[in-house]
Design brief:
Elements lengths: L3 H17 L15 H14 L3 H37 L5 H32 L2 H25 L27
Length: about 180
């Protein structure tokens, strides 16, 4: 019975982490969706969408300032996660203390994700409506090109073709490596 609360807390933390990372183990709170690298793609299409030098400077300032704050926020979050893991390993830790710290970790994860969203919106707001529309169009075109390239790598010839089994892939019944 002593293990029920710590195990339940670990499961809850894992579920929160998976949700915040877009359902996969992506880096940091909030996953890749709002990573600053995504907006570095904007630099690649800056000429195509007609960014002015002033807009480029504004975006760079927002991104740099945001990155510095984000580093501190994520470091604090990771330290709190370590504290929670340590508390979960303590067989004498009070359930209320575990719940308090689990809530703190969850709140910190949410704060980081919200901060990333705010930075994203600040950078987006530098663009005119026409630039936003053109950027969206270009990003969608490039995403489609990447999707097609990945499908061809997997042996798919048509976009709607089912995925072919991968040699040694644990997720497909065929093509599994021997001994699995």
């Amino acid at each position: 019975m002593k293990w029920v609360i710590p195990i339940a807390a670990l499961i809850a933390i894992a579920a929160i982490a998976a949700f915040a990372n877009g359902g996969h183990g992506g880096p940091g709170p909030g996953g890749d969706l709002l990573r600053f690298g995504a907006w570095e793609k904007l630099d690649r299409i800056a000429d195509e969408i007609g960014l002015s030098e002033e807009q480029r400077a504004q975006i760079k300032k927002i991104r740099t300032s945001g990155q510095k704050q984000l580093i501190d926020m994520e470091a604090d979050f990771e330290k709190a996660e370590v504290d929670l893991r340590e508390l979960l390993e303590d067989l004498n830790a009070k359930s209320s203390e575990i719940e308090r710290l689990a809530t703190k970790v969850s709140d910190m994860r949410s704060a980081v994700a919200l901060f990333k969203l705010r930075i994203f919106l600040q950078m987006r707001d530098v663009l005119t409506p026409e630039q936003r529309a053109k950027a969206k169009e270009l990003f969608e075109e490039r995403a489609d090109e990447m999707r097609e390239m990945h499908q061809m790598k997997r042996g798919q010839t048509a976009p709607d073709a089912p995925a072919a089994p991968h040699e040694g892939c644990p997720y497909h019944g065929k093509g599994m490596a021997p001994g699995r």
